[in-house]
Amino acid sequence: RYDAVVGDTTILANRSSYVDFTLPFIRSGVGLIVPVKDVVERDKYSFLRPMTWKLWLTSFVSFFVIGFTVWAVEHRVNPDFRGPPRYQASTIFWFAFSTMVFAPRERVFSFGARILVITWYFIVLVLTQSYTASLASLLTSQQLNPTITNMRSLLEKGESVGYQRTSFTLGKLKEAGFTESRLVPFDTAEDCHELMRKGPKNEGVSAAFLGIPYMRLFLGQYCNTYKMVEESFTVDGFGFVFPIGSPLVADVSRAILKVAESPKAME
C-alpha cells in the first residue's frame, strides 16, 4: 500500500474510480506524429524551376526585341551599330544579353533608345534578383509535407501504428477502431524512430501516437524528420495520485495552483 504516487500519471476517468487525483500539473494529450518528406525535387535541371517555361520564353524573346529595337533606332546615327550584316546581327544579341551582367560597350545616342535601355535595365534587375532569390530558396530550404494527415486515413488504409508500451494509449486506439495486430509497441524515442524509419513494408509503422509532453522531446530530437499532425485524444494531464479520501489531495492541488499562477510560471 502506498500513500501517494508521484510521476507522469495521466488523469483518466476509469482510474478515478480507484484513486484520487490532484489538479493536473502538466496539460497533456495524445498526438499523432508522422514522417515528413521534402516535396522539392532537386536535379541537374533545378536551375530552370524558379521560372515557368512561359516566363523563360518571354524573357528570351524580350532580349531579342530590345536588342533589335535599339539597333533599329541607333544604326543610322551611331557608328557602333554599323558594319557588315554579320557584325550588326551579333551586335543585336551582344547588346541585349550583355545587359544582364554589365553595361554594354556600345554607346546609345538617341533619347528614345536611352529611355528604352534604362527601362530594360530596371526590368533585368528585377528579373535577375527574383530568379536568384527563388533559386537560393529552392536549393537551400525544405518543403516538408506530412505523409499522413489524420487518424482516419490510418484506419481507412489499415496502416500499422506505434504506441508507448506502458501508456494508456493502447486502450484508446482499440476504442478508436484499430485492431491489435496493427498496433506495435515501443519503449524509447529511438525505438519509435526506428519503427517509422522502416515503414510498414519492413515490419515498421506508418505513424506513432505519443503523449504531448513526450512528443515535444521527440520532435526536438527529430525535428526535420517527423511532424505532429493532430491531437488525436484529449486528456486532463498529469496529476499526483492519492488514496480515495486522502486529505492531501486538496493541499497539493492548492500548491499546484499557486505554482501555476506564480510569475515564474508565466514566463
UniProtKB/TrEMBL annotation:
Upper lineage: Eukaryota, Viridiplantae, Streptophyta, Embryophyta, Tracheophyta
Membrane topology: Multi-pass membrane protein
Principal localisation: membrane
GO molecular function term, any single one: ligand-gated monoatomic ion channel activity
Name the UniProt record assigns to this protein: Glutamate receptor 2.2
Localization: Membrane
Transmembrane segments: 55-73, 85-103, 115-139
PANTHER family: IONOTROPIC GLUTAMATE RECEPTOR
Source organism per UniProt: Noccaea caerulescens
GO annotations of cellular component type: membrane
Alphabetic keyword roster: Glycoprotein, Ion channel, Ion transport, Ligand-gated ion channel, Membrane, Receptor, Signal, Transmembrane, Transmembrane helix, Transport
